[in-house]
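User: structure tokens for this one?
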Amino acid sequence: MARPLTAREHSVALFIIRCATTSPDESDYANFTSQQRDAWDPPVPITAEQRQTWENSLGEVLVTNECGCGICPSIGMRPRHRTDDDKRNDQGGDGDWSDRIVLTADVSGAMLLLFIDDDIPSYLELAPTDDELSFAEFSEPESISI
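Assistant:
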């Protein structure tokens, strides 16, 4: 059953939309070896217009998938008018990467990823980087590092 984003989920996604970059960012990519450059696409510059489109789209999504791993609060999202559209990806790592942007950030003990498909946020992931940690909810935006 689809539900609206919680206030915390919304504020975290909004912060990432407004501030985060793709990975690798331009400074990381500049230091890549030739082998690394061959294996990665160059950084995608994010425009103010894209960020505004994503921010506007955030108000139109509903949570349609919650991760069931037990260690993270990750959520899948679909637009209100497409909640039953099985072609619309809300699984994060799966899906069509040809029209996907992933914004990255960090909190203590975890990575934060916001997947954007066709200019609409589709998955907000908190991935613990320490096997001993689990998270019941997303961290406050003030604790996010870009």
